[in-house]
Amino acid sequence: MNIPSGSPIDDIDCEILAELQANARIAFAELGRRVGLSTPAVIERVKRLEENHIILGYRAMVDPAKVGLPVRAFVKVTIAGDKLAKFAALIKTLPEVLECHRVTGAESFMVQVAVRDVGHMETVIDAMMPYVATNTSMILASPVPWNSILPVPRHDKQTRKPRPA
C-alpha cells in the first residue's frame, strides 16, 4: 500500500487501520498475527495511533431503522453569517442528528437526521428554523453507508486499486 509523502504512518500502520476499521473488536493477538507483529508491538502501535489522533475512537454502528428511526434525510441548511455559531451549538443538542458538516456552496451545513416518521421530521426541521432556511432530501437507500479510509497513493506511484468487496 502506498502512503502519502510525509505521512506519520507506515505500511504496517495502514494494515492495522484497515483491520480495525473492518473489526474494531479484533483481539490484539489476532491483529498482530494478521499484520506480522507481536501482540506487544501491535498494542504499542495502536496506542500511538490513538495518541496521535489518527484513531479517533471506537463505536458500534447501529441500524437506525431497527431502533425505531426508519426515516433518514439530509437537511441542507443555509444560514446568515452572524448565526453560524448559534446554529452549530443548537445542532449538537438535537438527538436525531447523525452527522453535521459545514460545507461550501449554496448551503452552510449538511445535516443527516434519523426520525420515526414525517411528523417527527417536521419537528426536527422546525427546531432548526429560528436560524436557517432548509432544503431536505430523503434518503431512499444507502449503497455505501460507510467505507474504510485508505491512504491515498502519491501521484508519482501507480493508480489506486479498487477496494476489496
From TrEMBL:
It holds the Pfam family HTH_AsnC-type. Keywords: DNA-binding, Transcription, Transcription regulation. One of its GO terms (biological process) is regulation of DNA-templated transcription. GO terms for molecular function: sequence-specific DNA binding. Residues 9-70 form the HTH asnC-type domain. InterPro entries: ArsR-like_HTH, AsnC-type_HTH_dom, Dimeric_a/b-barrel, Tscrpt_reg_AsnC-like, Tscrpt_reg_AsnC/Lrp_C, WH-like_DNA-bd_sf, WH_DNA-bd_sf. SMART domains: HTH_ASNC. GO terms for cellular component: cytosol. This is Lrp/AsnC family leucine-responsive transcriptional regulator. It comes from Granulicella arctica.
